[in-house]
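For reproducibility, we list the full input for the WQD complex.
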Amino acid sequence: MHILVCGGAGYIGSHACVELAARGHQVVIADSFVNSSPRVLQRLQTLVGAPLACHRVDLRDRGAVEGLFTGQRFDAVVHFAALKAVGESCQRPLDYFDNNIAGTIHLLQAMQAHGVHRLVFSSSATVYGDPDAVPVREDAPLRVTNPYGRTKLVMEQLIGDLCASDPGFHAVNLRYFNPVGAHPSGLIGEAPGGVPNNLMPYVCQVAVGQRDRLAVFGGDWPTVDGTGVRDYIHVVDLARAHADALDFLVREGRSANINLGTGRGTSVLELVRAFERASGRMVAYDIVARRAGDVAEVYADPSLAHALLGWHAEHDIDAMCRDAWRWQSNNPRGYEDGAVDADAAGGAPVDAALSR
Ligand code: NAD
Ligand code: WQD
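The corresponding predicted structure, in tokenized form, follows.
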């Protein structure tokens, strides 16, 4: 299929592009690079064995989004493009509504106008807020606790309304739990700017010597060892699910909300120990006060993903740590390590955006 991947230069999107190309799909990336580097494109070319088309487009620009669909025919869209930092969303809610919700509306408008009727959307376990019970099933109550989460819930609802209004339009909302790890090549991975918000990139930066100590947010949660428990999922397993979701849309022609997790919880201290084993490095930490808005324990019931997509997670926490460490130790400064080779990314038919 000919697939538009919005946000395909980002952490999860770049891994999905590798998987989609490996399955024989033709991939076109659209990204504003608000939270990614054009340098990822040459790494993708190395992994895929051919340049990927990439357009620098901000989904907030309705005309530019429309332009993506003019002159090329897509069979489906995979939509990763969003701002995703919970704390930042509390400080700048309007920017999050504008970027995530308005951008999605423009994308849906263009899809409808051009008869593109298949969508795979990056949703999040954040739509469950603080769940009443674990493991979390897709029919658990939806309740969000911050503006970022609200954008994900609203986007799911907008997509649901569009599907209801147009019997030919089908979407799979993939609710990711905690994506971590990196491609086993060590060529692509998560490259957060500034101080990481999430646990795994913070642990990586402590292990590589960029940060002194990890602050463990709370040692008094009602969990196995008092630290927060989450369902970490390898980004390569996650990427695979997007290709499976596209196959589902083609095969079954219906919509679904699907959890993507391993179904297993891992505490902060369990992750730290797994990372120490994988890296051979000590991860110094202090147990500090709980972080506002955190919850004790969240992990998925991933059985629907298996039933509908034939998907299950294959990588365990040791593999997640091993691949995260390979990426971090090979690229301590993320995509800043390694030159931008315009020729290597050349062949991308349009504005491959290597000037940044
Ligand atoms: P990311 O920031 O690495 O990737 C998002 C990409 O979208 C970036 O390349 C960014 O430049 C681009 N983008 C953002 N706004 C855009 C716009 N208006 N127009 C064009 N491009 C735009 O994030 P990620 O971790 O790869 O997350 C991908 C998706 O998965 C997001 O929608 C996120 O909300 C969702 N998600 C992420 C996590 C996580 O922990 N990483 C968990 C659940 C859901
Ligand atoms: C995991 C655990 C922390 C950092 C967030 C978003 C969610 C989703 C994924 C997009 C928790 C603890 C963390 C640190 C720590 N994003 N921790 N020290 O909070 O489960 O989910 O990212 O949709 O919406 O809320 O992930 O990686 O931040 O935290 O002790 O420096 O690690 O308290 O128990 P979280 P996380």
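Residues 7, 9-13, 31-36, 57-60, 80-84, 99, 103, 122, 124, 176, 179 surround nicotinamide-adenine-dinucleotide (ligand 1) (CB under 6 Å). The first strand starts at residue 2 and ends at 6. Both points were considered when choosing residues for closer inspection.
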